[in-house]
């Protein structure tokens, strides 16, 4: 299909779908085939401004809707997502590449976010203490922050926007989403579902675009809070620039996640855990384990089975049955990942499984890189330190758990890390000493469920309050503390301690 015949996506602003005012647009492609699926507009400052005005106008209306009604709206959103979950999953696979099984799991997690936000009449409660002085009470209530905006990456087209959207509106905020310009289609479906909820116009808005919209959001005085998820350099830029205009910011960045394998690990289960973590979604998860650290004899116990299981993985179009690993998001990403493997080999690593040419017999326009294992990697190599964001697993040897922890703690990232062992003392030591926000014990992808915060450290996260769980309510509300006394019943003569 020619690009000109392809659908040009619309924005959703003030309760209506409308074309962006800018003329520029990019192709959205299916990375398994190279087919152009749609064109995404690169909206401009005027488009963003219209969304901010709509969101600001809706704010007083929406924050006064009762919290129970807001929760009921989320029940409706949950039902709508459930009804269209297969459409959402197919869209994720078609625009991003992950297998349909993985995409369904992503959509299930998306729905779980809405379920967690449905608890808002409980989770948004404040605190009260009577008699802080005689007849004086003190209470803290939570109120919405205002207009909240989210900027999201390509790797979870359904879920990552929903780390923020349901919690933000549950708390009485209005919301603007800028999807990744590489994968804007799944949120078109999500917003069709949102449209059916009959929310007041402007409560939830969708503005497609790239860098210009992001920078506009960071500078716009009509936006009160920014949630960002993406690569580490952009996370830093977002954090610094949004703070300059006094916004509340949470910026989740890149990662380099380690998996420590102890000699006593249950190896068959460990192999499955490593494979799912390193090669699921073709390694394009911020929680993907991309470095295995074998401790002592674990290396020789692990490697033959790991190599065999990796070689058995089927590479192909994620919509097809039996495919284990889909394409990476784009041909640019494919070339960058192949280049990383070249660099690792040039630095002295041995390709135990080499996926550089594994996709050559597949669709000519496809962005395939086969699962790759680089053995003999040392901690100083770039391939051990930098985020590749592809199906490339580095194997590093350590003599002891202490040495493994040292390697992990030397990383500038601190998103997730896992240990595989049956030794409770080693686990205790690991979870206590390791510098990362999310820890897995015999779990390769230790991404917390929606009811807990998603918590990176170091360069993997800039800010204070993390995504979803209890942190979401903290992030999307401002606290107001009221100290009060009453005179009319004759009891109000108590005094503040400052006067007593
Ligand atoms: P990216 O940083 O390229 O893009 C993220 C968003 O920022 C997109 O919406 C994009 O339009 C915008 N953007 C890109 N460059 C920009 C610039 N120079 N100025 C302003 N805005 C810009 O990230 P990506 O490639 O879409 O996603 C992959 C990255 O996201 C990986 O580094 C991955 O680890 C990270 N990620 C992190 C988490 C987490 O929870 N920490 C979760 C998912 C993905």
TrEMBL record:
Q: What is one process in the GO biological process aspect for this record?
A: L-valine catabolic process
Any idea which UniProt keywords this protein has? NAD, Oxidoreductase
Q: Which residues form the Aldehyde dehydrogenase domain?
A: 17-482
Is the keyword Glycoprotein in the record?
Answer: no
Lineage, top-rank taxon, reads Bacteria
Keyword Metal-binding assigned: no
Signal peptide interval:
none
Q: What is its EC number?
A: 1.2.1.27
Q: Which GO terms describe its molecular function?
A: methylmalonate-semialdehyde dehydrogenase (acylating, NAD) activity
The record's listing under InterPro entries reads: Ald_DH/histidinol_DH, Ald_DH_C, Ald_DH_CS_CYS, Ald_DH_N, Aldehyde_DH_dom, MeMal-semiAld_DH
**CDD domains, per database record:** ALDH_F6_MMSDH
- NCBIfam families, sorted: MMSDH (TIGR01722)
* Protein name as it appears in the record: methylmalonate-semialdehyde dehydrogenase (CoA acylating)
Upper classification of the source organism reads: Bacteria, Bacillati, Actinomycetota, Thermoleophilia, Solirubrobacterales
């Amino acid at each position: 299909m020619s690009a000109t015949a392809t659908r040009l996506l619309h924005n959703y602003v003030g309760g209506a779908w409308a074309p962006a005012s800018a003329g520029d647009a990019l192709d959205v492609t299916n990375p398994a085939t190279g087919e152009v699926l749609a064109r995404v507009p690169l909206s401009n400052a005027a488009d963003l401004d219209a969304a901010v005005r709509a969101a600001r106008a809706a704010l007083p209306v929406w924050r006064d809707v009762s919290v129970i009604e807001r929760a009921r709206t989320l029940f409706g959103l949950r039902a709508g997502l459930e009804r269209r979950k297969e459409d959402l999953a197919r869209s994720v696979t078609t625009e991003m590449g992950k297998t349909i099984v993985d995409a369904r799991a992503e959509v299930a997690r998306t729905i779980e976010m809405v379920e967690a936000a449905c608890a808002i009449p409980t989770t948004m409660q404040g605190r009260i203490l009577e008699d802080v002085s005689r007849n004086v009470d003190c209470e803290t209530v939570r109120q919405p922050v205002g207009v909240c905006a989210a900027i999201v990456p390509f790797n979870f087209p359904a879920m990552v926007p929903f780390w923020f959207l349901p919690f933000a509106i549950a708390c009485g905020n209005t919301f603007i989403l800028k999807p990744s310009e590489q994968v804007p289609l799944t949120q078109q479906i999500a917003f069709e579902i949102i449209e059916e909820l009959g929310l007041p116009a402007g409560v939830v808005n969708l503005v497609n675009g790239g860098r210009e919209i992001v920078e506009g959001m960071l500078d716009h005085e009509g936006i009160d809070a920014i949630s960002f998820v993406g690569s580490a350099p952009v996370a830093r830029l977002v954090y610094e620039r949004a703070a300059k205009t006094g916004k509340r910011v949470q910026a989740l960045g890149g990662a380099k996640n380690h998996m420590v394998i102890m000699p006593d690990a249950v190896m068959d289960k460990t192999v499955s855990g490593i494979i799912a973590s390193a090669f699921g979604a073709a390694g394009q998860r911020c929680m993907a384990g991309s470095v295995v650290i074998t401790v002592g004899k674990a290396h020789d116990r692990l490697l033959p089975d790991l190599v065999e299981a990796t070689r058995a993985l089927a590479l192909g179009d994620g919509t097809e049955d039996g495919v284990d690993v889909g394409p990476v998001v784009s041909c640019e990403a494919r070339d960058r990942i192949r280049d990383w493997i070249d660099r690792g080999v040039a630095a002295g690593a041995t390709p135990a499984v080499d996926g550089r040419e594994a996709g050559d017999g597949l669709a000519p326009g496809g962005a395939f890189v086969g699962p790759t294992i680089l053995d003999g990697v040392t901690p100083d190599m770039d391939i051990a330190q930098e985020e590749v964001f592809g199906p490339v697993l580095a194997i590093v040897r350590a003599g002891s758990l202490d040495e493994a922890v040292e390697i992990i703690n030397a990383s500038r990232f601190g998103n997730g890390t896992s240990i595989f062992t049956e030794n409770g003392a080693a686990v205790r030591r690991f979870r206590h000493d390791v510098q990362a926000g999310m820890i897995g014990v015999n779990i390769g992808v230790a991404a917390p469920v929606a009811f807990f915060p998603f918590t990176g450290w170091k360069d993997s996260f800039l800010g204070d309050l993390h995504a979803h769980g209890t942190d979401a309510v903290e992030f999307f509300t401002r606290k107001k503390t009221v100290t009060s006394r009453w005179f009319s019943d004759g009891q109000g003569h108590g005094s503040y301690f400052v006067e007593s």
